[in-house]
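ARCHIVE CARD
CATEGORY: sequence design from structure
SOURCE FIELD: tokenized fold
FIELD CONTENT:
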């Protein structure tokens, strides 16, 4: 649920000023609309949205929103913008294919068409009470229940069992999906985020996903000293689901260090470990392994006496 409120009175003038700037930028995408605007004709909301969509698709500009997922502020506007401004799969340039060994572009593309060979990208892994879910986006071709597909990253084939369309916690069983669709496949093995799935007769690799490096870290340990193995298994599942979430063991202190993209990111992971996996953690800052070293040059002398034998 969300609530729409009026702009604060002391900010109305500034909001109107920026709205005019937004309209001026948007109508540059349509010469006729721009001429009408310069003649004093106010464009309709539909025309403004159409121009913003075109500019977004052409990478002329990037609509930017402010909000807070934690406080659920501005999130509905972002969701509406996804629908209003982001292009459909048929409106964007086709995905480049890369060489399986070198990673270099092959010059071929995954044209969004049901007549092309099957090509899809696994973009999310989720483990729940019903089993592992692999979320995929189909770039070309058709995928049917019972098909055998190739994971080009591992070189292994897998048979497609259950396919579902997800809407929050609701699932709709599918027997077929095609280019442009997003769905989840149940029970796939050895698939990680970023892997390319394709027709075994037409192996290919889609452009790999690039994930940002973590920016914050915390040290964790289970409140129950006997839950180390349980904690490790649970953290391993979260790492498989989210490549921007990382774990490592500090060589000096032996601490388990969790790394993520922000404080909220790590708070959510700790909460999932507690609610979903029953692992309660003690959270703290990573310990610093202090070492001594020489910082300035010094002069010193030492006489070493060595006795080779006798009573001395």
């Amino acid at each position: 649920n969300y609530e729409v409120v009026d702009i604060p009175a002391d900010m109305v003038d500034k909001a109107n000023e920026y709205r005019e700037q937004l309209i001026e930028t948007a109508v540059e995408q349509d010469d006729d609309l721009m001429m009408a605007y310069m003649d004093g004709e106010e464009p309709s909301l539909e025309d403004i949205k159409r121009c913003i969509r075109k500019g977004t698709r052409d990478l002329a500009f990037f609509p930017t929103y402010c909000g807070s997922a934690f406080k659920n502020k501005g999130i509905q506007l972002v969701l509406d913008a996804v629908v209003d401004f982001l292009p459909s799969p048929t409106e964007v340039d086709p995905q480049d294919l890369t060489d399986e060994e070198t990673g270099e572009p092959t010059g071929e593309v995954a044209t969004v068409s049901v007549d092309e060979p099957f090509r899809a990208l696994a973009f999310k892994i989720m483990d729940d009470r019903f089993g592992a879910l692999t979320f995929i986006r189909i770039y070309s071709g058709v995928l049917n229940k019972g098909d055998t597909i190739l994971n080009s990253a591992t070189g292994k084939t897998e048979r497609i069992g259950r396919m579902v369309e997800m809407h929050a916690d609701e699932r709709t069983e599918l027997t077929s999906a095609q280019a442009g669709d997003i769905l989840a496949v149940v029970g796939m093995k050895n698939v990680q985020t970023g892997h390319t799935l394709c027709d075994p007769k037409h192996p290919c690799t889609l452009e790999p996903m690039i994930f940002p490096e973590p920016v914050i870290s915390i040290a964790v340990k289970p409140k129950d000293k006997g839950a180390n193995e349980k904690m490790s298994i649970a953290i391993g599942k979260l790492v498989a689901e989210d490549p921007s979430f990382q774990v490592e063991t500090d060589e000096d202190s032996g601490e388990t260090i969790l790394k993520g993209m922000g404080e909220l990111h790590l708070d959510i992971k700790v909460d999932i470990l507690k609610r979903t996996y029953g692992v309660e953690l003690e959270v703290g800052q990573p310990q610093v392994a202090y070492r001594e070293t020489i910082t300035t040059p010094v002069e010193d002398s030492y006489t070493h006496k060595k006795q080779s034998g006798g009573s001395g």
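CARD ANNOTATION: The chain has three domains: 10-87, 95-206, 216-284. Helices lie at 12-26, 31-38, 45-57, 75-85, 228-241, 263-275.
SHELF: design records, drawer C
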